Amino acid sequence: MSLLEAATRVRENAYVPYSRFKVGAALRTEAGHVHVGCNVENAAYPEGTCAEAGAIAAMCAGGERVIAEMLVIADCPEPVPPCGGCRQKIAEFAAPDVVVTLCTTEGKERRMTVAELLPGAFTQAHMDRS
């Protein structure tokens, strides 16, 4: 299954009673496994959790730690980028040259590297003196 198919399918499982803005994410690990996530809102935190974070959590729950590629899809006029928190999470598990594809349900697509999504990312190297 392609990342686009996986993200499109999981997007329909989003729980978004407040925003009604469904987002799906799929990532492929170095081992070739696909993990998916969708956004989930709740009354106490209507912004909810993000699809990208859900896919990363699923990857970690599956015992893997390295993203080889990622795709995010939403129904919007232009490809929607991950929020700042998710950009940092992606950078934690993906090399700077890993491609993240941002898609709309209408077929628009934008491909960016992790370094382009989050220039100057905070990394483990910043804590070398700790």
How is this structure best summarized?
It contains four helices and five strands.
- How many structural units, i.e. domains? 1
What's the helix-strand series? HEEHEHEEH
What is the CATH topology classification name? Cytidine Deaminase, domain 2
Would you tell me the structural class of the helices and strands?
alpha+beta
Q: Would you tell me the overall average pLDDT? A: 94
Using only C-alpha atoms, the radius of gyration works out to 14 Å
For the sheet with most strands, the description reads: 5 strands, mixed
Distance between the termini: 43 Å
Q: What portion of residues belong to β-strands?
A: 25-35%
The CATH class? Alpha Beta
Number of strands: 5
Helix content: 25-40%
Which shape, going by the Cα principal axes?
Answer: globular
Question: What report would you give on this structure?
Answer:
By secondary structure, this protein is an alpha+beta fold. The chain has a single domain (3-122), classed as Cytidine Deaminase, domain 2 (3-Layer(aba) Sandwich). The protein is 26% helix and 28% strand. It has helices at 3-11, 51-61, 84-93, 114-117; strands spanning 23-29, 34-38, 67-74, 94-104, 109-113. A five-stranded mixed β-sheet has the order 2-1-3-4-5. A hairpin with a 4-residue loop joins strand 4 and strand 5. The N and C termini lie far apart (43 Å). The mean pLDDT is 94.
